[in-house]
Amino acid sequence: MIYIALLVLLLGIELIYFKIADRYNIIDKPNSRSSHTSLTLRGGGIIFPIAVSIGYFFGYVSLEIALAVLLVAAVSFVDDIKPLPQLPRVTSHIIAVGLVFYDLELFSESLWLLPIVFVLLIGWVNAFNFMDGINGITVLYALTAIVSFSFMSINEPSLPILITMGLSCLVFGLFNVRKKAKTFAGDVGSISMAVFLGYFMIKTILETGQLGYILFFSVYGIDAIITIIVRIKNKENIFQPHRSHLYQYMANEMGYSHVLVSFIYAGIQLLINGLVIYMEIKGNLSYFFMIETLLVLTLIYIWIRRLVFRKIIQHSS
C-alpha cells in the first residue's frame, strides 16, 4: 500500500510539474541535431531527484547521496531553462562525486584509486546525459539498471530506494515512452539519474569485490566510447550535441520507431545483466569473463554500426 500511495504521489507531482512547465514555457524546441520534430515539455525527469528527496525523508537514502543528486539536479534544471556557463555545471558534478566518495568511505582507500574512480564516474554521468536522445531510451535503460541492482542480495537493504526510483521511472515512462512524447527528461533528469546509478554501481562493486558488475552499463558505455572515438577521428567537438550514436542513426536515418530502438537497447542490457548475475551465482564472474564479454560486445557493436551505415548509404543512393 505504501508503494501504491507513493506511485500516486509521484504521478500527481509530475502532472503538477507539467502545469508549471507549460505555464512558464519550459519546452524543448527541435533543431538540426534533434531526433524529434515537435515542441515537447522539458524537464519531466525532475521526478527522479524528487523521488530521491522522498527516499531521504523516509530514511531510504543517506544525506550525502540525497545532496549529491539534488545539487546536480538543481544546477541542471537551471541549465535546462537558461544555459549556464560550464563552470557551475562542472563544479556541481565534482562536488556530487565528492559526496558519493564520502558516503562510500572512498577517501580512506588508496590514493591511486580515487582519480580512477573519479574519472570513471564523471565520464559515466556525461555519457548517460549525452545518450538521452530518443523517446524512452533514458528511462528504460535506467529502469533496467534499477531492476538488475534490485535482484542482487547484496542490495536488499537498499530495496526501498531502488523501488522508489523504479516507480519514478514508471511515472516518467508514462509520458515519455510513446511515439509522441509529452515530456523529455532534460539534464535535470538524466544527470541526476546518472549520479544515482553511478553511486549504486560503485557501491555494488565495493561490497562484492566484483569489477564485472561494470557490465551492467556496457551497452551505453560501448556506444558512448566508440561514438566519441569516431567523432574525434572526424575532428568534431565531442562536447557539442550531435546525432552520431548508433541508436540515433537507427531512429533517424533508418526510420525505426524510437520506442522500439529504446526497448532493443534496454532489452540487450537486461540480458547481459541477467548473464552477469547468473555467472556470479555460479562463481564464474571473473576479470577474464568481463574482458571477454566487453570485447565480444564491442565487435558486435562495430559490426552492427557498419551494417547500419551500409544500409543508410544504399537508401540514399
Automatic annotation (TrEMBL):
It is a multi-pass membrane protein. GO terms for biological process: cell wall macromolecule biosynthetic process; cell wall organization; lipopolysaccharide biosynthetic process. It is found in: Cell membrane. This is UDP-N-acetylmuramyl pentapeptide phosphotransferase/UDP-N-acetylglucosamine-1-phosphate transferase. It comes from Flavobacterium degerlachei. GO terms for cellular component: plasma membrane. InterPro entries: Glycosyl_transferase_4 (IPR000715). One of its GO terms (molecular function) is phosphotransferase activity, for other substituted phosphate groups. It comes from the Bacteria. Mg(2+) binds at residues 129, 187. Its cofactor is Mg(2+). Keywords: Cell membrane, Magnesium, Membrane, Metal-binding, Transferase, Transmembrane, Transmembrane helix. The chain crosses the membrane at residues 45-75, 110-127, 134-152, 158-177, 184-202, 214-234, 255-279, 285-304. Pfam families: Glycos_transf_4 (PF00953).
